[in-house]
Amino acid sequence: SNESCIPCAPGQYQPLTGQADCLACPPGSYSAAVGQSSCETCPKGGSCNEVGAATSMVWEPCPAGSFNPNNGSNSSAACELCPAGTASATRGAESGDACAPCEPGHFAATPGLSKCERCSAGFYQKASGAAECLRCKPGSLCPLGASLELPAACEPGTYANATDDDGDPDCFDCQAGSSCSGGAAPPAECSPGSVAATPGLAKCERCEPGTSSGAGSESCSECAAGTYAANSGQGQCVPCPYPLSSERGAVICSVCQKGFYLLQSADPADVFKSPTDYCKP
């Protein structure tokens, strides 16, 4: 009799009459109510992997960068990857329409990406939906995310580092410690023995004799006592030959070290040339 019939529990169904048992909802479906003759199909955009699911909460959305146009999927493998050159930030996407082509200046090298990447500095991409960027030609400017090769026409002492909305490169003052020849050239660090004391210089200035500087310096430093720099543009000061010494900022060593005395007055160049003839212990 009907009084002895037990309704199927959630997660089960029975399409036929007079059956002894209920059936578990297969993967890809669920049944949230009691006494169901069929299971609900899991929606597009994801999958239901469990057997006997009693709630739609078992539905797992496809991750960003993928989509599933089919109902009733029973595995995450049903999620299709967005192709290279496109990306989607949407979880649970139901259609490939969610995979948007990368904008110019961007690319997606592999399938299944949630966002497109900007072209690196020195590269550009003018097309939409690109899987790679193109190398910028010598003499052209391609900042980060460039969609065009830009002719850089910066004045000497400035360099191009970015692009504004009108597509023209913006020119900035060269940083102190560097020189900028203009055009499309990037800043060049001052070499040892030369400096750029202020921003906006087209070339680095050589250090005077008696001073030196390291790479990328803004100022020259006096040679320490016991060292000298005979020429301009020296990257480092040279220790005085034995047994000579010097004052700070010396261009030549012409005094005797402590513990030695100068035998007689002489031209500094002669003392430097023959130190042991003039400095005696």
Care to describe what's here?
The protein is mainly β and 281 residues long. It is built from two helices and 30 strands. It has helices spanning 268-273, 275-278, and strands spanning 12-13, 23-24, 29-30, 40-41, 46-47, 60-61, 66-67, 80-81, 86-87, 100-101, 106-107, 117-118, 123-124, 134-135, 140-141, 150-151, 158-163, 169-173, 178-179, 188-189, 194-195, 205-206, 211-212, 221-222, 227-228, 238-239, 244-245, 255-256, 261-262, 279-280. The strands form 15 sheets. Strands 1-2 form a two-stranded antiparallel sheet. The longest helix is centred in the C-terminal third of the chain and has 6 residues, at 268-273. It is elongated, with a radius of gyration of 39 Å. The chain starts with 11 loop residues before the first strand and ends with a strand. The relative contact order is 0.07. Mean pLDDT is 91; it is low at 163-167.
By oligomeric state, this entry counts as: single chain
Quickly count the helices: 2
How much of the residues is beta strand, in percent?
A: 15-25%
Adjacency order of strands in the biggest sheet: 1-2
Largest sheet geometry = 2 strands, antiparallel
- Broad shape: elongated
SSE order and pairing:
Layout (H helix, E strand, L loop, with lengths): L11 E2 L9 E2 L4 E2 L9 E2 L4 E2 L12 E2 L4 E2 L12 E2 L4 E2 L12 E2 L4 E2 L9 E2 L4 E2 L9 E2 L4 E2 L8 E2 L6 E6 L5 E5 L4 E2 L8 E2 L4 E2 L9 E2 L4 E2 L8 E2 L4 E2 L9 E2 L4 E2 L9 E2 L4 E2 L5 H6 L1 H4 E2 L1
